[in-house]
Design goal:
alpha/beta, globular, 452 residues, 10-stranded mixed β-sheet, 29% helix
């Protein structure tokens, strides 16, 4: 979408300033290390809240034309912007002394919107995703980006969906303390290697970041929490699985603690050419970052630590209530587990990975097989009422932090229920929710991702 607004200082000379916003429904879609991002919507809405007075000497037709543009587009931008707002960045400088640092040694950071009213003692701690680095070379490439250094992070983050502070958009968690922890360690907040190679100056300290953030939030009031939820998306969704019981152990015994994984159930599947790409990758991640000590001993006593990085091998040992949100045709998994570049050197899957409607019948058959494998991996996730799941048949990745998929009139549904309602009902024990969608393309409520 191209959006125009009239810049106040330039009205007398009848100039228009163009603000470019590329969005799918509401925000900018970027795959990989970033989730859906809203571009300047809050800023634009603020700048265009009112149309300034026009110079009396301006041509009447110019005045009328600019006013129409201003009024219409301000209204559109205002409508969009109320679905999202900006929250500043907090640097946890005190964590540096504990060695709880990003890949480059900088302080960890998070965004926090404080709770209010009846939610003042309720806490949502959400860990950001962004893939992993599995060796020194990859971690060095990551170190000087926002996924390896807080020095490179934007100072504001857009809160929407599950983070929103209005009941209309987030009825069950709007007044909680809502925290998004930025991702800068490259191993889903599990690494803990004491030694630092002076040749690389890489710090593998994700587990220390996790603990330092939780301890900081406890000191800021979470020690009095009535309710607390550990959550995350993608690699952060994996954090919510791997660190779930650890999170429970750090909270007071009288706090109701639950965990939520959004798009974090990565499965150990073979590629389209039959190779075990993701299995070797995860083994390298765990080895490089020293993650084994964070993983459940109940799992690592039975199989290698690399295999215990897969949720399907870990989830049966989790004692804390947990909810899984995942697309059975997860776009990240299709692009990076099923058909990564190393398994598709001729690019025959390129168009299919960009848009599932481009997939051939043979490719769709393979995708249906991947779905079956995904559902089979869920067998360790028992049907206890304390566990919930929302497994839809969309081509998507991460659905809680985006208003269009969390709660809107056109949001994805299972059993006529939005993700927001399913999670809220499960958390507050109003109802159980364990639903698996029918195979693609049966679900017309999906917001399937389309990539450029």
């Amino acid at each position: 979408m191209l959006g125009y607004y009239v810049s106040p200082p330039l009205l007398a000379s009848t100039q228009l300033v163009c603000v470019y916003m590329h969005y799918k429904n509401v925000g900018c879609v970027r795959e990989g290390p970033t989730s859906l991002v809203y571009t300047h919507l809050y800023f634009v809405e603020e700048r265009t809240a009112k149309c300034p007075s026009l110079d009396a000497s301006s041509h009447p037709m110019a005045i009328e034309g600019m006013m129409r543009v201003c009024v219409v587009l301000v209204g559109l931008l205002s409508l969009l912007s109320i679905e999202a707002y900006e929250v500043g960045l907090t640097f946890l400088d005190s964590a540096v002394a504990q060695g709880a640092v990003c890949l480059d040694g900088s302080a960890p950071a998070y965004h926090m919107d404080k709770g209010f009213g009846a939610g003042i003692d309720n806490w949502l701690v959400f860990f950001e995703g962004g893939g992993w680095c599995n060796n020194v070379t990859n971690c060095l490439a990551r170190r000087d980006t926002r996924l390896g250094s807080s020095k490179q992070m934007l100072t504001t983050e857009t809160f929407s969906g599950m983070f929103h502070n209005k009941t209309k958009y987030n009825p069950d968690f709007y007044n909680w303390n809502r925290i998004k922890v930025r991702y800068c360690d490259g191993a889903s907040f599990t690494g803990d290697v004491e030694e630092v190679d002076p040749k690389t100056n890489l710090y593998f300290r994700g587990a220390r970041i996790f603990r330092a953030v939780i301890e900081d939030l406890l000191a800021k009031g979470m020690k009095n929490a009535t309710n607390a939820m550990l959550a995350g998306c993608s690699a952060g969704g994996l954090t919510a699985i791997l660190q779930c019981d650890n999170f429970r152990s750090l909270l007071p015994a009288n706090t109701t603690v639950k965990c939520l994984s959004d798009a974090g159930f990565f499965i150990n599947a073979k590629t389209i050419i039959g190779t075990s790409h993701i299995e070797g990758f995860y083994a390298d991640v765990v080895k490089t970052h020293g993650s084994a000590k964070v993983l459940s001993p109940a799992c690592t006593s039975k199989m290698s630590p690399g295999l215990c990085f897969f949720p399907q091998n870990m989830v049966q040992y989790i004692e804390t209530p947990i909810f899984l949100i995942n697309a059975a045709y997860d776009s990240w998994q299709v692009k990076n587990i099923l058909a990564p570049g190393v398994a598709d050197r001729k690019g025959t899957w390129r168009d299919c990975k960009l848009d599932i409607t481009n997939c051939s019948s043979a490719q769709l058959d393979i995708l249906q097989g991947y779905r079956e494998e995904f559902l089979k991996a869920l067998t360790g996730f028992d049907s206890s009422p304390s566990r919930g799941m929302f497994i839809n048949s969309c081509y998507s990745h991460c659905q809680t932090g985006i208003q269009e998929t969390w709660l809107r009139s056109d949001s994805p549904l299972l059993s006529n229920t939005t993700i927001a309602k399913a999670v809220g009902d499960w958390y507050y024990e109003r109802a159980t929710f364990q639903q698996i969608d029918c195979p693609y393309p049966c679900d017309e409520t999906c917001h399937n991702r389309v990539f450029d």
